[in-house]
Amino acid sequence: MPNGREGKLEKRRPPVPRFDQHELHRRHGRDHERGKPATRAHVEPPSVAFQRPRNRRTRPCGEAIAEVLEQASVGARAAEIDRPALRQPQTAQDHEAVDRRRCEFDAEPFCDRFELCAHGHRGCHDRHAVPYSSADLGTFERRIAAGLAHLDEAGLSRRAPPISEREGVRYRLDGRPVVGLCSNDYLDLADARLPATGVAGAGGSRLVCGDLAEHRALERSLAAIAGTDDAVLFPSGYQLNVGVLPALVERRDIVASDALNHASLIDGLRLARASIRVLAHRTAPDDLALPEADATLWWITESTFSMDGDLVDLDALRRHLARGGALYVDEAHAIGLHQGGQGLLARHGIVPTVVVAPLGKAFGCAGAFVGASAPVCAWIRSRARSFVFSTGTSPTVVAQLAAAVDRVRGDDGDLRRARLWRAAHHLARRLGLDHAPSPIFPIVIGDNHAALSIAGALFERGWHVQPIRPPTVPVGTARLRVTVGAGHDIATINAFADALIELLDRASLPLVVDRGAGFRAIP
Hints:
7-stranded mixed sheet
């Protein structure tokens, strides 16, 4: 929270929140403790007697509506009294008190008022942006400026690196030639070019007039890669997860979610509003009992974790499916990297209930898909709001994706995968590791400013490695997320490893490749 806000905050009665029975139940009695059963007693929402309006034939409609709204307002105020943590701070002193209760897992100055923060933990609902009235809109820019200053002070300010003249892993950054080691373009396909492919747009939503033959053909190819009956194409992986999870997960379901899951998975579960248990990293929900027959026990996880590069427990996945649980797996950093373009699960003969994967990484383009049974995909096409209310993916992008799928599944893909894994295993050896479970190497620095400093020193030597800081990773685990791909040869890997080791030694920092460090940093 910014502390430099000028002037006193206006003293006024807090805005009345919406009275939502489901919201009240959602905020009470949920189990968020990582790996522990719920210990909080269930708190009933405040009892408010709602009176049925008098017969509408004997009174004006407006009067009846006004009466119902007044009762709802009373109920909302009662809810606010019962849950003072949801109140907006009313004075500068109140605001500072709220700020001191900020979530220790997320260094962002502002946070949505959900009980799950960006890392799936409790506490962020006690922290709000500074309130301001419509008559005080002139302070908005000062509030933003103070927030930016706070980010800069914490080493959390960001900008998009201006890249030009890219050819594979070599490009110019701020006009300086560099070799990139932070891309997700694992198979070096992002620079692939196709001749003009015809029409630019789908013309509408897939459910209106934008469902084209190109979409359906690509979905069949993607289902074959995932080993599922059907697949549904989305414009992006984030858009997929925030649409598919609320469509499939119901409030009565029980959800087990890994502590280091990607933000898109966490945000999708926020929208689903089911009962969520955050699992210790790479542990299975074996101790959770299956719910009643009309509910589902979901396990939501990545197969290769994006910031740590470690893998899910494959045997635990099999056990979960065998006992009747549902499995939702994001294969973002595994799809395309195994034989025939498969992901980690298909490579090992595991067919989850739902598998999702973006197409902007190994496939070098854009978009994402979800693979599942034909009935599940039919339901997604009808109920996933981010699919229903979005224009169909551009046919130009679909043509690029179709070409990439063919390359990834064929002989060219085999050659690129061989180069990728050769580079990954060689870098692992240079960094003192036995092997590389993935092309992702988390060089954990810890301090935000130190991570920025090492990244800047590497840039001066011609290497582009982006520092990863909270809220992408938990506080205290800032890192250099190094990734290698098919475009890195052995000489390049050696030169980079020499530069990295030398700079860490000069800064008196240890070389730490710590997969799972994000979880161990969470108290």
